[in-house]
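STRUCTURE:
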C-alpha cells in the first residue's frame, strides 16, 4: 500500500469515487472540509464549511447531498451555496452526522455519532428524494460502515465503539430494514470497524480504526484477508480508478506524537490495487 495523497487530514473520511470525473471526493470532518482529489494530476482542492461534514453522496442532476452537524443539505455545484433540507436530530445537542451512502433507488442513508457514549444516542436515517426522513435504527453509539450487498437485499452498518458490524434485510422498494443480526464482531484492543465498501462479489471491506489494517469479509461474516495500512487509524475504503480496482483508504492525522513517529503518513490517503472491483456508487435522486 502506498501514499496516493500526502496530506495531514485531521479526520479524513468518506472517500467516494466519481467515475465520470475520475476524481476522488472525501471529507476532513474536523477541518470542516469537502475535498476533491484528482489522482492524474495529484491536485487536491477543498470547500471550507462552518461545521463538520460527516458524509456526502453525489446527486443525479449534479452537485451533492451532505450530512453535516446540523442536518441534511444540498449543494448544487462545487462553489454553490448550501441549501438546508432538514435536521432530524435538531433536539439532540451532542450528536453530529457521520457515515453514509445512497441506496440503488437514490435514498441517502446516513448515521450519527454520539461522543459521550453514556447511552445509545446515535441513529441511522434514510433521506428520500421527496425529503422524507425515516429512522432505520436508534440504538447506536457511532453509526458507521454503511454499505449494500450487490443485489441490494442486505444493508450493512457498524457500531464502531461496540466493535460490531450488523447486517439487515433491506427492502429496496420501501427503504426499510429488518431482521438485524451481528455480521462480524471484533475483539477489543485490535481495532474497531469504521467505514466500509462492498465489492462486486459481495465481500465487505472495512477499515479498522486503531487497528492499522483493513479487512475483507465474506458474505458469511468470515474475515478472509487482512491488509496492513501505514496509519494506525484508517477510517474508510473506496473503490476507484478506471476499473474500480484501485482501493483508496482515508486516515486520521490528528494523533499522539509518538504514534505519528511510528506512522508519519497518518492523515494521508493511501491506495493499492486489488483483484476484485468494487461497486459503482449510487447517486442521490433529489
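SEQUENCE:
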Amino acid at each position: 500500500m502506498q501514499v496516493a495523497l500526502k496530506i495531514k487530514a485531521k479526520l479524513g473520511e468518506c472517500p467516494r469515487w466519481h467515475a465520470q470525473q475520475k476524481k476522488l471526493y472525501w471529507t476532513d470532518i474536523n477541518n470542516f472540509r469537502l475535498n476533491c482529489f484528482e489522482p492524474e494530476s495529484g491536485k487536491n482542492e477543498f470547500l471550507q464549511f462552518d461545521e463538520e461534514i460527516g458524509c456526502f453522496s453525489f446527486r443525479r442532476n449534479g452537485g451533492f447531498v451532505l450530512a453535516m452537524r446540523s442536518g441534511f443539505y444540498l449543494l448544487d455545484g462545487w462553489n454553490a451555496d448550501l441549501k438546508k433540507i432538514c435536521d432530524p436530530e435538531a433536539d439532540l445537542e451532542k450528536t453530529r452526522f457521520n457515515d453514509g451512502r445512497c441506496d440503488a433507488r437514490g435514498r441517502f442513508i446516513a448515521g450519527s455519532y454520539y461522543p459521550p457514549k453514556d447511552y445509545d444516542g446515535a441513529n441511522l436515517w434514510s433521506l428520500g428524494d421527496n425529503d422524507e426522513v425515516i429512522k432505520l435504527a436508534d440504538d447506536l453509539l457511532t453509526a458507521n460502515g454503511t454499505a449494500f450487498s450487490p443485489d441490494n437485499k442486505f444493508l450493512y452498518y457498524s457500531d464502531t465503539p461496540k466493535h460490531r458490524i450488523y447486517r439487515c434485510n433491506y427492502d429496496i422498494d420501501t427503504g426499510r430494514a429488518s431482521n438485524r443480526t451481528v455480521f462480524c464482531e471484533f475483539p477489543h484492543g485490535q481495532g474497531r470497524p469504521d467505514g466500509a465498501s462492498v465489492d462486486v462479489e459481495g465481500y465487505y471491506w472495512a477499515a479498522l480504526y486503531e487497528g492499522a489494517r483493513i479487512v475483507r469479509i465474506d458474505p458469511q461474516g468470515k474475515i478472509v484477508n487482512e491488509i496492513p495500512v501505514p496509519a494506525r487509524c484508517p477510517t474508510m475504503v473506496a473503490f476507484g480508478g478506471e476499473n474500480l480496482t484501485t482501493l483508496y483508504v482515508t486516515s486520521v492525522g490528528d494523533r499522539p506524537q509518538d504514534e505519528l513517529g511510528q506512522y508519519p503518513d497518518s492523515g494521508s490517503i493511501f491506495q493499492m490495487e486489488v483483484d476484485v472491483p468494487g461497486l459503482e456508487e449510487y447517486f442521490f435522486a433529489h
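REMARK: Residues 2-273 form a domain with the Neuraminidase fold (CATH 2.120.10.30).
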